[in-house]
């Protein structure tokens, strides 16, 4: 009977970016959460966009191979007025998703407002408020060099909260989660050009 409550799951959360990618990993044991790691991947300013995408892909694969998460939770690009910034963020997110798909992870996407609401109760919370709440929730003292690290961690915690509070695997307002290329191709057969 207790076995269902004590099932463990490792969640990798990513806040994609073209200058800095934040990530956080938590271990979920029933309703309890434990911090495994958090950090950032800095992109070299001098690198062109394609080299930055390669670094995002390689680092995401390395995180997956090192920590063996069960799923990826990723922040969706926010809507902005600068189309070029949106395009670059979308590519960064896509590359991180492709890395997770290459390792057959379940993937769930969350809107920034949903993540902030889940962590602080306020969809308009600042990065500092989110970081403070996470430090309290997961009992860590270190202040990361970049708030992007706690943003990545917030995505993982948000994903955990969704399952704990709703008993479901996907977040509200998220797109369909795919567990690998085979599933994606099967569900999108009409979109595939042969």
Q: How would you explain this protein's 3D organization?
A:
This protein has 194 residues and is an alpha/beta fold. Helix content is 45%, strand content 20%.
Keywords for this entry:
single chain, 194 residues, alpha/beta, Nucleotidyltransferase, domain 5, 5-stranded mixed sheet, 20% strand, globular
Write the CATH fold name.
Nucleotidyltransferase, domain 5
Question: What proportion of the residues form beta strands (DSSP E)?
Answer: 15-25%
Order of helices and strands: EEEHEHEHHHH
Main beta-sheet annotation = 5 strands, mixed
CATH architect. name: 2-Layer Sandwich
Itemize the secondary structure elements and their pairings.
Elements: E1 8-15, E2 20-29, E3 32-42, H1 49-67, E4 71-75, H2 83-102, E5 106-110, H3 112-120, H4 127-138, H5 147-166, H6 181-187
Parallel strand pairs: 1-4, 4-5
Antiparallel strand pairs: 1-2, 2-3
Helix pairs in contact: 1-2, 3-5, 4-5
Could you provide a short overview of the structure?
With 194 residues, the protein is of the alpha/beta class. It has helices at 49-67, 83-102, 112-120, 127-138, 147-166, 181-187; strands spanning 8-15, 20-29, 32-42, 71-75, 106-110.
